[in-house]
Amino acid sequence: MNQDVLLRVEDLKVYFPIHRGVFRTVVGHVQAVDGVSFTIRRGETLGLVGESGCGKTTTGRAILKFNRPISGKIYFDDQELVGLSESRFRPFRRRIQMIFQDPYASLNPRMTVKETVGEPLMIYRLSRGVNLRKEVQGYLELVGLSPQYVDRYPHEFSGGQRQRIGIARALALRPDLIVCDEPISALDVSIQAQVVNLLKELQKELHLTYLFIAHDLSMVRHISDRVAVMYLGTIVELASSQDLYAQPMHPYTQALMSAVPIPDPKIELQRNRTILTGDVPSADNPPSGCHFRTRCPLATEICATVKPRLNEVSAEHYTACYMISKGG
User: Fold this and answer.
1) Predicted local confidence at residue 186, as pLDDT
2) SS3 per residue for the chain
3) pTM for the full predicted model
């Protein structure tokens, strides 16, 4: 394994059973993640984007073993995680943390800031008593909050402040990798940029690595070094942020990019929009072959029979499309 690679995911699949009837008979599966592969290098941010329901959050949760994969491998610092028991995974849970989407739901309303941020320190026996209080105050200052807030409860804070508390909790164990599960989607637009800038500053100061899950393409462009685009449980394109936004290759990525508004009204009126027809298929019965083929203007017969894999079509730029692979 390349020493620069901190996390490597190989052909990850996460299916959820569909139960029906009195006896809860399994009648099918929701194929939430269907063969996802990617790497994250130390110190970089990989953006993971796509429509709601495409499997972004499930992928992130599988890395922390919140969701159990049915197959595939997850390597963290050369150690395969999927087969580990909970006791053997415990040291890695300290090194991989998560910032949750909803700052209103992710904080226990009955716990003070000291208890919330200090809990992981107590669980791993890293601090307690007077020292715990000082450490929590230090983490509050690190995320731009007053150390005097240490005895307050979540209902006393705004949404942006709550998310900063969530970030402080994720930082408490000094992790190597943080999975950011749409950390700004529940915040006011005026606060989103502040939180993203904070994450960038913390990354530089603490040498953090991020998996940044989002559907806001403009914010992903601002924070990510590379971007992976998901559609119905699969990654259809992966490239550096600069390359992906300058020259999206996959038809789905092109459609996503064309939907991003441009501030200049003249350019907005002149550019060509890619309008997709039809709805996103259900994850419990995805199309055969390429999952995007039912909405793709370039689809041919081969797209319906064999699922395309990510191929490098230019330097560090990967797409899963037969037409592009063939130069079409």
Assistant:
1) 84
2) CCCCEEEEEEEEEEEEEEEECCCCEEEEEEEEEEEEEEEEECCCEEEEECCCCCCHHHHHHHHCCCCCCCEEEEEECCEECCCCCHHHHHHHHHHEEEECCCCCCCCCCCCCHHHHHHHHHHHCCCCCHHHHHHHHHHHHHHCCCCHHHHHCCHHHCCHHHHHHHHHHHHHCCCCCEEEEECCCCCCCHHHHHHHHHHHHHHHHHHCCEEEEEECCHHHHHHHCCEEEEEECCEEEEEEEHHHHHHCCCCHHHHHHHHCCCCCCHHHHHHCCCCCCCCCCCCCCCCCCCCCCHHHCCCCCHHHHHCCCCCEEEECCEEECCHHHHCCC
3) 0.92
